[in-house]
Structures are given as structure tokens and as C-alpha cells.
Amino acid sequence: MEFMGDGTTLLETGRFVHEHAVTAVAAVGVADATAVDAVDPIESLTPVEPLPVTDAEAETEARHRRAAEAGDVASMSVLGAMLLRRGDLDGAEPHLRAATAEGDRAAANNLGVLLHQRGYADEAAGWWRIAAVAGSAAAAHALGRHFRERGDEPAAEYWLRQSAEQGHALGAYALADLLEHRSEPGAERWLRAAAEQGHREAAYRLARALERQSPGGSAQESRGSTAAADAHTGAGAGAVEDENASEGAVAGGRVVAAGAVVPAPRAAGGPSAAAASAVTDRPTADTAPGASEHPGEAEQWYRQAAARGHRRAALHLGGILERRGELKEAARWYLTSAKEGEARAACALGFLLKDAGDEESAAVWWLRAAQDGDGNAANALGALHAARGEQQSAERWYRAAMDAGDVNGAYNLGLLCAAQGRTGQAEQWYRRAAYAGHREAANALAVLLLQAGDPVGAEPWFSKAAEAGSVDAAFNLGILYAGRDEDRTALRWYERAAAAGHTEAALQVGMACLRDGDEQAAERHLRCAAGGGSAEAAFRLATLLDARQPPPRAPALGEPLSEKTECEEWYERAAEQGHRRAQVRIGMLAAARGDVTEAVRWYREAAEAGSRNGAFNLGLLLAREGNEREAALWWGRAARAGHGRAALRLALLAARRGELAEGQRWCARAVELGPAEVADRAAALREALHQELTA
């Protein structure tokens, strides 16, 4: 509760007499008069509980009581205000009435407060009007609120403006609230005026207004997958196999694998387990604030409000600091807000603690927030239990989130059921979330329908999710249309997903540009996809750059090894992610520049991963180094995987050893596998071996 007033008296109104109270104020002391005078109506329109009296207050009260009994008007007013503040309405009323009768405007204002608390609103308004006409800003504010409660907004605006223009913080705030409610200009000006006088709610709302002036958005990144199959080559038996020309050739240039449809995005801060895609939005405020044109000013007002105990301001301030990377201070403000009962701050604090590796403490704060009705915290708890394999507990918390109105709860229940093979229940939960507007649930439902063989039913859900902003759904629509050979429509959706940062969609767009001969656009999209972590895109980009440079040459005697080119760096990035064709190609480049050790390493990695070209090239390198025994082992693996030139190599090796029957067998295999040049050489060798055997 707050006391306001200056100890001055009412101006003459016909009933009240203008009197000066300077002498009386001096008698009770200036400090007392300014500390206890008029109860501010905004704090006093509802009854208050009696407050305990300290020794100092008791002494002050006794001094004012003696002065009031001696007829001092100012002391009557101050004593009435003190008793009113304490909740002693019966004790306060006679003193306030006596002071009011003597023309004290502060007493008239406080008498209005007292009568309002007793339920006599109209009589209270009469006293507030008298005090307001006499210049009381607090009474004008109370009168303005009185009229607004009764729906008389013009009268409310008049009196609130009178209060605000006198510098009354509460009047300025109430006027700003009224103007904002009516969508009229000037609200920000009066919020600022109130905030500058220390009004914490005004400071908070001013910060919110500044922050909302330039809302931002975010795109969610998702992942797809690509796969490639081995194919045959057409080079001679002694040539080094280039994976770029064979393995992974894709019909029509598309890289579409069975697992390319992405059912849902990764969790935002949530654990990954059976419900790895569980969605738990990371809260920092009522709505996710975006970049503001006045970020520093908004933060300044949040700080002012938070320092005065405004828990939502502390929450928003924590969010600003967290986005800026100042996690320690962000956690401090989240903690302050959470201790004041702000569930969203408790939830946000839980996410910070989880990021720091303290899941147990995170769970404590999530539990506290969830018990206070925060659906997002309940989702986080559900994801945490799912990660630990505690499916029943996870389901219970997801249901709690749904009951709290968080649609993510239904979506996460769908994910949980799908992970357990309960497809029918998963579809029900996805539908519930999708009908509520959850775009990723719509995407997941479409994937489920597609997997069940219902592409017609899946398409409208993909479209709905994509139109609502789901990047995964846009990518999946591209796959759906590509499967129907509607390449133009597919490309449109791929481009939309790629523009939102979808890695695999960027790869598809890049490959479409390559098919159309637009290498510049292809390079741009492939760089985006490769930078996003796509091994296939890194390989394709490296291949594009490789085709622009002259073939590598072996260094001359004594010449240092040349540095790696950019295309080799991209090959290496793809190779390090397990891309077999990139591993073979980088092995070829290393061998060409004379780095045999590096070449052997990459050929071996590719061969051990199942690359027949890698096995063949490794055999060639080992044979050149004199290790024909191990070379034969790798050629054998390549030949059994369908590599014709490896079979021809084994036939030649067997012929040199005098193993004519074995040589004939490998010749027959080489003829069968091809390609044509290899088949011709193998047939000629088989005939020679046959003649030697029958000679």
C-alpha cells in the first residue's frame, strides 16, 4: 500500500473552506506528513488485512493522535490515513471525516477509499470528485477508475487524464490501459510516463510493446536421408575405379531413399529416446519475442520492472539474456521469477539446467512448473521419462500436458504410441493434435497414412502442415510429387523447404539445377546442403568443383606434395561421414598426388564399408606395393560383389601362378559381369587357358 498527498487543503467548492495547513504540517514534522498522508486508491479499493504495528509507528500514531485531539487538521488526516492503511476502518473514519470537514483534500480522497472498501461506491465517488476538483491527482485517478468500472469511458478518460497530467503514475498507467483497450494512440506515451515514475507494471507493458514492434520468426531445421546403390563401370581392367562414375548412380538424378520421408522434427531441448521427436517448446514469455527495433530499451524496462519484483518481467529478461548467451544471469532472473510463482520461468530454468547437464535439478523445476499447470514443463517431464524408458510415466505427463491445454501433449503421445508400435492409437493422437492446428502432428499423420498405403489420404495433411509452415511437410510433399513424376510441382515444394533451411531439400534443388545445366544455382544449393551436414551434398559439390579443375598429376622427384584443393576438402567431409564414393574418390586424389598412405586409408575404409570399387582400388595399390596376397583377398571381395575387372585381375593372377582351372573360373565370372571391354579380354584369356589345358 502506498500513501500520497501533500498535506494541502481543499480549494473552496461551496461546501469546503480553503485553509492553509502549513502550520499544522510543521507541528507534526515534515517527514511524518510526507510519509503518511493519502492512501492511494489503486492499492486500497479492496479491504486489507490489519497490519502489525511497530514501536516506531505506535509512537508516530500517538504523536498524531495528541495533535488531532488538539484540533490539528493535518494530524487528523495523517492519523486517519495510518489507521486506514492498517485496516482499522472504524478508527479511521471519524478522523478522516473531521479532517475533510475542515477542507483537507487528502482526507477527502482517503474517505472515498474507506467508503469504497465498505461498499458505498457512489458516496466514495462523491468525495473523490470533491478532492479531484480541488487538485488531488490520486482522487482523480480513483474517480476515473470508478467511471471505467461502470462503463462510462469518456468520463473515465477525462479524470484519468487529469490525474496523469499532474504526474500521477497510477493515473498515467490507468489512462494508458484505457487507450490501449480502445486501440487509440497515446498509450505508449503514458506507459512511459508511469514507468519513469517507477510503476513496475507500466515498465513491463512498455517493454512488451517495444519488443512486439518487430516480431521475428524461426525456421526449424529437419533432416531427411539419401541412399545409393552400387552399379557397374565401363573402364578397362587395369584402370583405377572412380566411385563417381558408378556407385550411387540415381535414376533421373534423384536421391530419394525409402526413409526419406521425415515424420517429425527433433525435440527443442527435449531428451531423445523412444520419443526422440518429443516436442517441448522452450518458453521465456507469453509469446516468443522476436528481434526488436528497441532491444536495449525493452531490456532496460524489463530490468526496472524485474528489480521491483515483477515476475513476468524477470521471465522476459531471462529470455533476452539466454538468447544473448548470458546464461548465468538468465538463470538468476528465471530463478527469481520462479520463486515468485511464475511456472514458465521454472520451466525455462529447467531447460537451462538440463543443458548444463543437471537433469535431476531440471526435473525438480519442471515438476514444480507442471504442478502449477504448465503444459510445456509436463511435456519436458514426459520426454525425460521416455528417454529413460519409463513409458508409463512419460504417457502420464504427456496427458497432463494435454489436460493443461498444450497440444504438444497429444502430439507427443502420438510419437510415444508410434514408437511402441501402437499405430492405431498414434493415429488418433496425431489427428487430435492436427485438428487443433499442430503442423508437425499433421505431417506425422500424413507419414503414417503414407506408410499404410494411403497416399490420397496423406496428401491433404502434408499440404495442411506445409501451408502452416512445416518444413518437413514441404519436403515430404516434394517426395510425394516426385514419386508421381510431377517434377515441376515437386521442385516447387523442395525449393520452399530449402528456403527454410531444409538440408535434404536443398540437395534435391541442387540436383535439379544440375539436370537443367544451371551449375551456378546448383553450386549455391549444394553448398547450403553440404554446410547443413549432408554427405551426399558434399560429395556432389566436390564432384562439381572437381570437374572444373585439371586432372591431378604425380609430383616430380623431390617435389613436395601439393596442398588439398577445395573439392578434396568437400570429398573429405563427405568421406568422414561414411560416404563410400567420396572415400574412393579422395583415395584416388591422394594416390594421384603420391600420398600412398592416405590413399590406402580411404580405400580400406570404403572397402570395409562394402564398396566394391574401394576394394578393387585397394587391391591395385597393394599389388603395386608388392603385396599380391592381400591384393587377391580384396579383389576376391570385389569380384564376389559383382566387379568384373576384379574378376579379370584374379584370372590373370591365377594364370601367372599356373592355376589354370582357377583362372578359367574367374575368366568366366569376368565375362559374365562385364563391361564389354573386360568381357572381351576375359574371353580371350579363357580361350588361351583352355588351349593350354588341352595341349
Keywords:
Serine Threonine Protein Phosphatase 5, Tetratricopeptide repeat, elongated, 695 residues, mainly alpha, two-stranded antiparallel sheet, disordered N terminus
CATH architecture of one domain: Alpha Horseshoe
The counted number of beta strands is 2
Strand content: under 5%
Quaternary organisation:
single chain
CATH class label of one domain: Mainly Alpha
- Helix share, percent: 55-70%
Distance between the termini: 119 Å
Report on this structure.
By secondary structure, the chain is mostly helical. Among the domains are: 55-208, Tetratricopeptide repeat domain (Serine Threonine Protein Phosphatase 5, Tetratricopeptide repeat); 578-641, Tetratricopeptide repeat domain (Serine Threonine Protein Phosphatase 5, Tetratricopeptide repeat, Alpha Horseshoe), CATH 1.25.40; 646-694, no CATH class. 67% of the residues lie in helices and 1% in strands. It contains 37 helices and two strands. It has a two-stranded antiparallel ribbon. α22 packs antiparallel against α23 (439-451). The protein starts with a strand and ends with a helix. The model is unreliable at 1-48, 217-239, 243-276 and 284-292 (pLDDT under 50).
